[in-house]
Structure prediction request, 254 residues.
Amino acid sequence: MALARTNALIIQSKRFRETSLLIVYYTLNFGRIDAIAKGVVGTRKTPVFHLFPSYVELFLYKKGNALSLVSSSELLDAFPKLHQDLRKLSSALYILELVKETIKESEENSSLFWLLLESFKLLENAKDDASTELILITFQLKFLKLLGYGPFLDNCVVCQEKIGENLPELKFSAKAGGILCRKCSQEDRDSLVINYPLVALMNYLLNLKPSLLARLKVPLNLRKELTKYIEYFRDYHLPLEQKSLESLKLIRGC
Ligand SMILES: [Zn+2]
Prediction:
């Protein structure tokens, strides 16, 4: 079994038997990896394995579908400011829970890796609660899009009519994966009414370079609206168990 090296984010870490930890990583090269770190509990190395989220360089023996074995790990970023702020930390834990419950297979997706790392760095440096909330909104949009669910916002997802200010009575459909024009809105009776400026804002965030997000200000009422539409879209596409949804709500309630 060959030793593999990769950069990784710790998604979760918990006690496994007496002195070991079971760690869920999201890695740059292999996607999700569940691995055992043997005999590390109670040693000076424990914090390197037990802190999540954190960014590490990881050496491991990879074992197909079985649990992999950690050889060693070097801490690259512990996101200290993120761990000192309850709202930042609860947002990060929400992201981790979403990833852990949604991504089960070990398959490389470097775009998702960089999205996660950039989001944690943004949370680490967020200046206030409004920025933290906007980072979470943008993460969810980009995450859903990366997984292939959409939302697709440039054209009506049924007839491909270009979406613009001139089109009245737009609907937002989770089932169809994006915006429906008035003609096509009967395709999904559960779709939500949405106005064009909100579609445009959602589209802007979806395509925004993460580094530019720190400077952006979005008023509270628009952040609330965006969250409502994104949660409706997420609940349709991500088959989270009731238990996970409850814990997400608890985390978000902080
Ligand atoms: Zn249409």
Q: What stands out?
A: The chain has a mean pLDDT of 90. Strands lie at 3-16, 20-27, 31-37, 55-61, 68-77, 170-173, 178-180, 192-194. The longest helix spans residues 129-146.
